[in-house]
Amino acid sequence: MQIETLELESFRNYERLRIEPGPGLNVFSGRNAQGKSNLLESIYVLATSKSTRAGKDIELIRFEDPVGRITAHVTREKNSDVALEMIFSQTDKKVARVNGVRHTKLAEVIGQLNAVLFDSGDLEIVRGEPAIRRQFLDLEIAQTSPRYVHALGAYRKTLEQRNRLLRDLRDARGSLDGLREVLPSWSAQLAHHGARLIDRRRLFLERLGLLAAEVHETLSDGRDSLQVVYVPSFPLDGAVDEAGVREAFAEALAAVAHDEMNRGTTLRGPQRDDLTFLVNGSDARLYGSQGQQRTVALSLKLAERQLIEELVGEPPILLLDDVLSDLDDVRRHHLFDLTERAGSQTFLSCTNLRPFSKGVLEQARVYAVSGGKLELQ
């Protein structure tokens, strides 16, 4: 999978840009706030429909321009080549087109282009709030599973309705007997959609954890071990499939029904799941140094790249946004070695070229970035 051409129009600080990146390593070098991260962000947005840095889509539009646009032509090994376009408007919802055909359902768009992004914010996957780790899971699983995207949307709608009902029960609005009678049906729907999410998350993390442990051992020169632990909001009690998870979820909801009605919110489910990262047996969030936390986050992303390749049959695009400054020489060497052997088209941003060996630069396509403009070196 490779991006043959990438075009930006009124995206972030880019008025107009068209590039033809190389098939291997593409390096974007320049001072801070020149547009390096914006370029990598555009590729991730095209792949997932989401930005990890923008709270609203209109933040992606340059200054006060009415419309922003990302366009790419992507060649794929397992599927036919595809033209992708995403348009953002100050007044309307974003529009996605695949080969010129407009799509409104995310499940039809996500996965056309697979990309793995690692940036400075990914340190929060390890040390931040549980919501950040859940977002990481949802975005990455969605790239390889349209079924997951559908289940996630259905779960969120059901959760919203069930929470509204619980608030009405808490505040004694409406007929309490009538409200209590419909609660079990909403609980059953929640367990149905939620079990699909939990089972998929569990399977994804089982494989991701094994791959991340291998990458982590390489990056740390064998000094540290990594274990990724899934922490659901209720015991799975040995459930081995989706049906078993659904049964355990339903039992967990029944056990806390009284507390939920008193508090007016759902207390169990995927919206309360978490992950724990153990380095040498200790929680990296609590006891890991920043260097160890950075290595855990990078290991996750490189393992994710490998897992996506296994699932879709070809390597995804790898986006490395200003990662070199926080890595020592040994980890940088291993990173370059791993990315080269992976065979992914890679986009890497940096403030200068000093961390690169002459051999790496000779194989790379290098761009100087300044004020939203690129110059091929």
From TrEMBL:
It is found in: Cytoplasm. The keyword Lyase does not apply. Signal peptide: none annotated. Transmembrane segments: none annotated. One of its GO terms (molecular function) is single-stranded DNA binding. ATP binds at G30, R31, N32, A33, Q34, G35, K36, S37. GO terms for biological process: DNA replication; DNA synthesis involved in DNA repair; double-strand break repair; SOS response. Keywords: ATP-binding, Cytoplasm, DNA damage, DNA repair, DNA replication, DNA-binding, Nucleotide-binding, SOS response. InterPro entries: DNA-binding_RecF, DNA-binding_RecF_CS, P-loop_NTPase, RecF/RecN/SMC_N, RecF_2. The keyword DNA-binding applies. GO terms for cellular component: cytoplasm. The RecF protein is involved in DNA metabolism; it is required for DNA replication and normal SOS inducibility. RecF binds preferentially to single-stranded, linear DNA. It also seems to bind ATP. Belongs to the RecF family. This is DNA replication and repair protein RecF. The lineage of its organism: Bacteria, Bacillati, Armatimonadota, Armatimonadia, Capsulimonadales.
